[in-house]
Every structure is written in structure tokens, then in C-alpha cells.
Design brief:
single chain, 456 residues, 6-stranded antiparallel beta sheet, 5-stranded parallel beta sheet, 33% helix
């Protein structure tokens, strides 16, 4: 058997910069895998890393039959799932039925993201703290009364909305009537709606890699959902994010980090108890540090986008072996660690973003990666030598540095340079000192009200 024939064959499934980052981490593996991709468009990064003839497009990543058929054709040793949609519809189960292991949870376990109500009830049932006050409605009966009693509140669809379905009282509507109208639409569209108390604090993400027993907690990351600087404008899939050299975040206290890790570990145990199968993949907890401690906003069943781009470049160890060991229930956490570097991720988006457009133009490929700078392609399509923008995010620069200021400078310079010659824009304030200072002061202010005995 030749060395080439012994190489692992890996299929990556996804359609975004997170998928490009996952593929890049596979390329960096000393195992030099033979890479394939299933995606919704010919993303330049996937074409470059896998090869022209190893990228197959599909209308929707929910198309399990095409995924299984492709897997039967190429017989991969491992499939790595990027986004949530194929996980929700049972791609891992379908691949397992033909003997192909996957990095990602089964359909039953993916409910931790696909049903917000199920996730909340799981925590309640197993006595895991962190839930805000909430109630789930499948009709309008009692809805307006609950809103009035809880106000201010958050309205959440019970399903996948790509981070754009949540509406907050005081931000997206300022009357019970308008909130009720949106909640009624959610019930008609999704079958039920979740009303939660509006929490005040600072959000952060904890991605925990697990085979159902062993865990690896990734560095904490803070995302920026709002489209405009100063956290204004509509919600997006994420305009960028940052992580800190100490792998925590400067507005958090040690107990906040400990609590978030403990909650994730308890939920992994609860999922096994509830479903009878181990959770294998990434459990992504979206948390908020509040004056009363850590609260859970929601769970995701995969790497975050953009949060994956903060943690994968600083992972020390063979990413491909990590994914394979997770899929087979053999994770050894001691083999992996994270470099103590700061990261700043800044997304480039079409000028019309987040509005839809029929013709967003073309974009020139940035210069190749440098040791302190990574570029990951998102929703752009390569046709011949040209790369066409779509209505979605175009790609992301990730700056690395020994300090946050260094990482931000690297990412900002690259983003500004490409913006000058292409029809794209970005949020310049992500990772900047004044933005971070606001978050630190915000948490100091909230914690001081507790110390003074002032209730929220």
C-alpha cells in the first residue's frame, strides 16, 4: 500500500467561513488528509484547499440523501459537520447507518440547539442552574399577560433562525402590542414561542469539545451581533469576535468561568441521561455574565461562526486527530492545548449587508495568510478566475498577537486595505480598546449595585 493510499479521507460539510477555518485546520494536520467538501456554493477557500474536483455543491445542506450518496461515492474515514442545519435533520445518524463516523451530535442530541424550549426544560429537569425566567406558548392564551408581568422580555422562536430571529423589548419593539404581533407570527411559523426575561450584562461564548465523557474547554470568546459600530443596527450572523491571551475575558471573574464550564459539563451528562447516547462534537454555550452570576442564553450544537475562527488558529495539537477521537469516543484532552495569544476576527460584508441584493459585485482575493493573520472565505462563489459576492458575509480576517491591541491592529489593517479596493465594509470597533473598556465598565457598574445592596 502506498503512502498516498493510506492518507485519511475527510469530508467537510458547510457553507461559511467557519467551514473554511475547519478545512484549514485539517490542512495543517501532519496526517495530510485527502479533503473533500459538500457545500451550497463553490467557496474559494474550499476549492483551494480541497481541489476543483473534490468540492460538490448541493442546493441545501439539509439534503441528507445527497450527503449520504456523496459519502458512499468517496467513502470518507471521517465527516466533519460545520453548521447546524444538517445536524438538525439527522445527517450524523444517516452517515452512521452506512458506517461513516462524524464529528457532530446525532439528531436527538442536536435538539439542544434546534429547540430552545427543549434545552430550557432539560436544564430544569436535571436541576442545572442558569436558566432565566421563561415560559413557552403554543397559542396566544395568556401571552400578553405574561409579557406585561415579565417586561422587559425577549421573544424567541423555537427553532433555527441563524441568530436573527430573537427580538428584544426596548430594542426591537417598545410596546406590548408590537411584541405580541411578532410573537403571534412566531407561533404561526414555528408552532410555539418562548418568552424570557431580558437579562442585563455581557455575553460570552464557551465552546466545549467532547466525546460525551472527556471535555476540552476552548478559550472564551465574545461575539458582536449588531451590524453597526457601538452595537447598533440590526442583528446579524455575527460581525466579528475576539479572545484574550489568558483564554478568559477581562470583564469576567474566575467564578464566572468556572460556572460556565461546570454548566456545560452538567449539560453533557444530562444529554446522555436524557437520550441514552453520548454527545460527540462541540457543545457551544452562549452565556451572559449578570449582576446575579452566569445565565444561559442558548445552546448551539456546533462550533460558532465566527467563534471557531478565534479558537482554531491557536489550537495546539492535531485537529484532525482530535475530531477523529471525538467521533470514536476516544478523546484524550491532555494531547491538546491553546496558545496564549489574543485573536480578533473582523468579518467583511457586502455594502448592502444585512439587506439582500441581487448583484453585490466581485471581490479580489486577499494576499496569502501570514503567521499573525488568517483569512477565511465565507459566502462567496468562485466562477473561473472571478469571485462573486452574495448577500451574505464575504469572509473574515483573524489577527493574532501577544496582546489584544496587537491582534486588533493586524486584523484592522487587513480589513481596511481590502475594503478600499472592494465593495465591502466591516465593523472597525471590534477588538478595539474603547469597545472593550465599555464592557469592562458595564460589568463593574452591575457588580457594584450588588455590593451596594441595590436589586436589579
Amino acid at each position: 500500500m502506498t503512502a498516498l493510499s493510506m492518507r485519511k479521507r475527510v469530508l467537510v460539510v458547510g457553507k461559511d467561513a467557519r467551514t473554511d477555518a475547519i478545512t484549514a485546520a485539517c490542512v495543517a494536520s501532519p496526517q495530510r488528509p485527502e479533503l473533500y467538501a459538500l457545500t451550497e456554493m463553490r467557496i474559494p477557500g474550499l476549492v483551494e484547499k480541497c481541489g476543483e474536483d473534490r468540492v460538490r455543491t448541493v442546493t441545501s445542506l439539509r439534503d441528507i440523501d445527497t450527503l449520504v450518496g456523496y459519502a458512499q461515492d468517496i467513502r470518507p474515514d471521517l465527516v466533519i459537520i460545520g453548521p447546524e442545519e444538517p445536524l438538525e435533520v439527522g445527517c450524523v445518524d444517516a452517515l452512521a447507518s452506512i458506517g461513516v463516523p462524524s464529528f457532530g451530535p446525532s439528531e436527538g442530541l442536536a435538539r439542544i440547539e434546534s429547540s430552545k424550549a427543549w434545552a430550557r426544560r432539560l436544564l430544569d429537569k436535571h436541576g442545572i442552574p442558569g436558566n432565566p425566567e421563561y415560559c413557552v406558548f403554543d397559542s396566544v392564551k395568556g401571552l400578553s399577560e405574561y409579557m406585561e408581568d415579565l417586561c422587559p422580555f425577549v421573544v424567541k422562536p423555537d427553532g433555527l433562525t441563524a441568530g436573527k430571529g430573537v427580538r428584544v423589548f426596548g430594542d426591537h419593539f417598545d410596546s406590548i402590542e408590537s411584541a405580541l404581533e411578532y410573537a403571534q407570527w412566531v407561533i404561526m411559523s414555528y408552532g410555539q414561542v418562548q418568552i424570557e426575561e431580558r437579562l442585563e450584562g455581557e455575553e460570552f461564548s464557551l465552546q466545549t469539545i467532547t466525546d460525551g465523557t472527556a471535555v476540552i474547554h476552548c478559550p472564551l470568546v465574545q461575539d458582536h451581533k449588531r451590524a453597526e459600530e457601538g452595537d447598533k443596527g440590526p442583528n446579524t450572523g455575527g460581525m466579528g469576535s475576539y479572545s484574550y491571551p489568558d483564554l478568559s475575558l477581562p470583564f469576567l471573574e474566575p467564578d464566572d468561568v468556572t460556572k460556565a464550564k461546570w454548566i456545560n459539563e452538567r449539560v453533557i451528562q444530562a444529554l446522555a441521561s436524557e437520550t441514552g447516547e453520548p454527545y460527540r462534537g462541540v457543545l457551544y454555550g452562549g452565556f451572559m455574565a449578570t449582576r446575579d452570576g452566569v445565565r444561559l442564553i442558548e445552546y448551539n450544537c456546533r462550533f460558532g461562526d465566527p467563534e471557531a475562527m478565534n479558537v482554531l488558529p491557536i489550537l495546539q495539537g492535531d485537529f484532525l486527530e482530535l475530531c477523529s477521537s471525538v467521533a470514536h469516543g476516544e478523546l484524550q484532552p491532555d494531547l491538546y492545548s491553546f496558545d496564549h495569544k489574543a485573536t480578533v476576527c473582523k468579518y467583511l460584508v457586502p455594502r448592502s449587508y444585512p439587506e439582500k441584493t441581487l448583484n453585490a459585485g466581485t471581490i479580489e482575493a486577499p494576499d496569502p495568510d501570514k503567521p499573525d493573520l488568517k483569512w477565511y472565505w465565507a459566502a462567496c462563489e468562485q466562477k473561473g478566475q472571478d469571485i462573486y459576492l452574495t448577500s451574505s458575509r464575504s469572509g473574515a480576517f483573524v489577527g493574532l498577537g501577544s496582546t489584544l491591541a496587537q491582534a486588533e491592529k493586524v486584523a484592522e489593517r487587513a480589513a481596511s486595505d481590502i475594503e478600499r479596493i472592494n465593495p465591502v465594509w466591516h465593523r472597525a470597533d471590534i477588538g478595539r480598546a474603547d469597545t472593550l473598556e465599555k464592557r469592562i465598565n458595564h460589568m463593574k457598574s452591575l457588580r457594584s449595585t450588588v455590593q451596594l445592596g441595590i436589586s436589579g
